[in-house]
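Dear colleague,

Thank you for sharing your sequence with our group. We've completed the structure prediction you requested, and as agreed, I am returning the results in plain text so they can be pasted directly into your records. Please verify that the sequence below matches your submission; if there's any discrepancy, let me know and we will rerun it promptly.
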Amino acid sequence: MNRLLAAALCMTLMFWLPARPASATTTCTGTMTTLNFPATSGSISDATATLSITCSTFGLSLLANAKVNMCVSIFSGTDGGGTLNPRRLVNTFNDPMNMQLYTDAARSAIWGARGNATVPNPLLLQFSYDVPLLGGNQTIDTTLYGRIPTQTGLNAGTYVNRFTAGADTLIEFRYAEQLLGTPPMPASCISGGSGGTSSQFPFTVNGSVPDSCTLTPKPVPNLAFGNVPGPITSNVDQTTSIGLVCSGRTAWQIGLDNGLYASGTTRRMRNGAGQFVVYELYRNSPRSLRWGNTLGTDTLAGTGTGAAESLPVYGRVGAQAPAIGSYSDTITVTVTY
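Please find the predicted structure tokens below.
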């Protein structure tokens, strides 16, 4: 009798042994699309990208709820020179172009990084979602607003800043979960609830400054040889200049065609009676380099600096005996870049 009672008592104790409390693990991961700015020559350029963050909770054995308090930080970027305000893009020559990242469409709130002395303003997100038997999750999509502000002196080229994982982006969060009911939201992304694992979302920001050149003024000032008594017994030399502004690092060539009345490659001015005066245009003051229109051969070449340049055109009328009259020609200036 005693032996049977002991066995029954043992079985009863085993039946009522409480189960271990259920627990869960919450993880959060994010991805960011590439931020591609339209090309700019110094005016405002705006663009957007999308950050998608998903928090997932698994491991609970009953209907439950999870809450996540999160800070999303973006630093200066690998190519940004260590500054958050302004952030920067650089080209292959390491020329800088200012840009900035914002959390709002008005582009008034800079997207910063928790703990940064200059811009300590990360994006703040809160998640709240159900976690049934097989687990649960929530995804929040957020827009990153970018702007290249108005600026001068930009050099032509393709610009970039890379925000790498582990150095330039950071997700920090705390989470709370509860088997029944709704848990309180953790106090912040670094206190309250349970500690979340930090993760990153690498992305790239791209911009560009196109090659550009402008003749200034337009039309190019006339080249006037003046009143010359005939016959012409010695060279008559005069100059004019072509004004040019090209963006920095833009390679350019300027060509001059042969005019309206050329005979082959011989330039000629004509009067109203259909008579001609032969003349020539040169790229150098000794007038030994003819200025033509064949790229890489007889054009004038250079590289833009972003500043205005004055390029002399050297003209010459050689010895000849033209008829009395007023002569003119029209030359077309072509800038190739």
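Summary note from our side: The helical segments are 2-15.

Kind regards,
the structure core
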